[in-house]
Amino acid sequence: MKEYILAALLLATPVAAQDNPLQNSPTWEDLRASVLGIEAEVPLDEAVLDLDAPIRAHEAAIVPIRLTQPADAPPVQAVTMVIDENPAPVAAEYSFGPAMMPLDFEFRVRVDSYSDVRAIADTGNGNRVMAGRFVKASGGCSAPAGKDMAEVESTMGQMRWKSDSQDGRTVGTLMIRHPNFSGLQRDQVTLLNIPAHFIDRLEVRQGDELLFTMQAGISVSEDPVFRFAYAPNGQPIHVRAEDTEGNRWDQTFEAVNG
């Protein structure tokens, strides 16, 4: 419980807007075409999407990221998160339902070396915009796991949920217990490499209505936490998580009114 509270507090505090804009990145020029299949540069447009992240991360393995939109911004259908210098640069791909608009979405990632962190948003009809920050962090993908293997086995897949009302919307915080091993970490007892094992699929709904989905790689943090605002419809929250070992966890949280 203590770890959950600390994680929730970390995300509940908005990341202050920082003077750490994206930097020129030869890596991005290559990734844009070869990995994402995007030929032209994607424009930056804070009137559609902004990304907040710290200039220098306190912990490279749990770097907080917040995506926000102005109230009058066009809806974002999907976002691809890219961390240029990570071993697997595409950190996650998110899709969003209408109840999540305008977007206010927080999560945590691993940053392996000083890198641009980008969100490439799809607003429909082939339109894309980009937001991002340059983050000073190193070693996030190989940072030691926070728990021993016995605790990992006993808590994996446990979920916690809390929600609060704010300006007519609900702000939900979801935490999922999972080591999200990157494949680059060592067991602190045996000193052997720990095989990659992470949540690669996540779906969150209220009733039948989609809130968001995630398809992820190795860059999502251990014990991932998601904090997001949405328009409530009074229905329970359903969460389904799947990992790379074929495990699946489903949990339902009753709606809280008022």
TrEMBL record:
> What is one Pfam family matched by this protein?
SoxY
Q: Which species does the entry assign this protein to? A: Paracoccus aerius
Q: Which residues form the Sulphur oxidation protein SoxZ domain?
A: 164-253
- The record places domain Ig-like SoxY at 45-141
Full protein name: Quinoprotein dehydrogenase-associated SoxYZ-like carrier
